[in-house]
Write a structure and sequence with these properties.
Layout (H helix, E strand, L loop, with lengths): L1 H22 L2 H11 L1 H10 L12 H30 L4 H23 L4 H12 L3 H31 L4 H36 L6 H38 L3 H13 L4 H41 L1
Length: 312
């Protein structure tokens, strides 16, 4: 009896040691995964500030908090467990899901690029007319819903990439890494977004007469800089979306993946140049892919509209 209990305790101790040794690698896995999803994170950070534009400044942080809370719930409660279950029972579906997400990012990125070079006077006038007909509370709820919907797609991509990175690790590692990445990225993204949307208020506060001239000057400069910074952030987010989307797909098509690797090897002596070359090539590829996806989507929509009219 005593020997059986000691044997059991030895087994438990051995299991604890193995788990502890396995978990020692978690910070490295989290850092590695965070690097891989950086493009999606940049895009998420760049997209979110637009959802508070035109709303009551006193409500900005509350809106960001609502989006962040729902984003974390989606990652931890819905997306994480769903990807773990899919990865356990039908692991072959992870690659198609990643490619589908990459295609969506290319499509969204192409639409953003297209909008930069197109005139949208009519498109902008309609939303303004609609905004005048709804209350601030309704507009805020609509913005939060729209932001959460966009975030859900980006969060799904983040969680899927995270799982793909740790798919060969023990289940405990997978759970801990996915949970850590979900919490860390949500806090980092929405903390930074909150800082961005309140930066002009911080600048105005610093520009008050009660502060020293140097502080007032910095505050005024901050206020002037923020519109340009938000514009730059939007461009960076678009490039990141195209780059990540195209690279996700390329690495799952051997011919394209080998070409990207060959480009990196050719410029291996200058790592920064190799990275930029890969980003630019991937982004251009993302635009091209997004263009074709947009044409397919437009065709499908027109077919559905045609069939709907015939049915009536």
């Amino acid at each position: 009896m005593a020997s059986g209990l000691l044997a059991l305790l030895d087994d438990v101790a051995a299991l604890v040691k193995v788990s502890a040794a396995s978990l020692d690698d978690v910070p490295t896995q989290v850092a590695k995964t965070t690097t891989k999803v950086s493009g999606v994170v940049i895009d998420d950070t760049a997209v979110t500030p637009k959802y508070v534009v035109g709303l009551d400044p006193s409500r900005e942080l509350s809106i960001i908090y609502q989006i962040a809370k729902k984003s974390l719930i989606n990652k931890v409660v819905f997306l994480g467990p769903a990807i773990l279950v899919l990865g356990f029972f039908i692991p072959w579906i992870i690659d198609p899901l990643l490619m589908l997400g990459g295609a969506f990012l290319c499509f969204e990125g192409y639409e953003k690029v297209h909008s930069m070079f197109s005139k949208h006077d009519e498109a902008h006038s309609k939303p303004e007319a609609e905004m005048a007909q709804i209350t601030p509370e309704e507009l805020e709820k609509e913005r939060v819903t729209s932001a959460v919907r966009t975030d859900f797609i980006l969060s799904a991509e983040i969680i899927t990439i995270t799982y793909y990175t740790v798919a060969d690790k023990p289940l405990l590692n997978q759970i801990v890494v996915m949970l850590a990445v979900a919490v860390f990225i949500t806090i980092a993204v929405y903390g930074f977004v909150g800082l961005i949307v309140k930066a002009d208020d911080i600048g105005l506060h610093m520009a008050q007469e009660k502060f020293r001239p140097a502080i007032r000057k910095f505050g005024r400069s901050l206020v002037k800089f923020m519109p340009a910074f938000l514009s730059i952030l939007g461009y960076v987010g678009t490039v990141a979306m195209l780059w990540v989307g195209a690279e996700i797909i390329a690495h799952r098509i051997p011919f394209l993946g080998h070409r990207l690797e060959a480009l990196e090897h050719a410029l291996a002596d200058v790592p920064v140049l190799a990275w930029f070359a890969k980003v630019i090539v991937s982004a251009v590829g993302g635009v091209i892919l997004g263009f074709f996806i947009e044409k397919v989507v437009t065709l499908v929509r027109s077919l559905f509209k045609g069939s709907a009219k015939e049915s009536h």
